[in-house]
Design a protein that fits this description.
The protein is an alpha+beta fold and 101 residues long. The chain contains three helices and four strands, in the order αβαββαβ.
């Protein structure tokens, strides 16, 4: 039993670096808009961005920073993001691609 536990731990430790690399792949976009005043505003934006094929996660900061996580193949262009924000009643204040965590 002890040998089986030790082998399981060794296997886990050996495979963890490769697992982390797979999870870290992708793109993260920081998109800047006006401050969010309610939870519904954040939810509304999340629903809009999650409709885009390739978006894997979405997070929002109350100060108006949206974090859109996407597959490596998805490239969000400024024109598309600006239109989405304006269509949902928000200002577009810029965006940048950051490192995936």
């Amino acid at each position: 039993m002890r040998l089986q536990v030790k082998l399981s731990l060794v296997l886990l430790l050996v495979t963890m670096p490769w697992s982390a690399g797979v999870l870290a792949q992708g793109r993260v976009y920081e998109i800047y808009t006006n401050e969010l005043t309610c939870d519904y505003c954040a939810w509304d934006l999340e629903q809009a961005f999650r409709k885009i094929p390739g978006v894997t996660d979405f997070d929002v900061d109350i100060d108006g920073i949206l974090f859109v996580h996407a597959e490596e193949t998805l490239v969000l262009d400024e024109t598309r993001v600006r239109k989405m924000l304006i269509d949902n009643g928000f200002d577009y204040r810029g965006m940048k691609e950051t490192q995936s965590e």
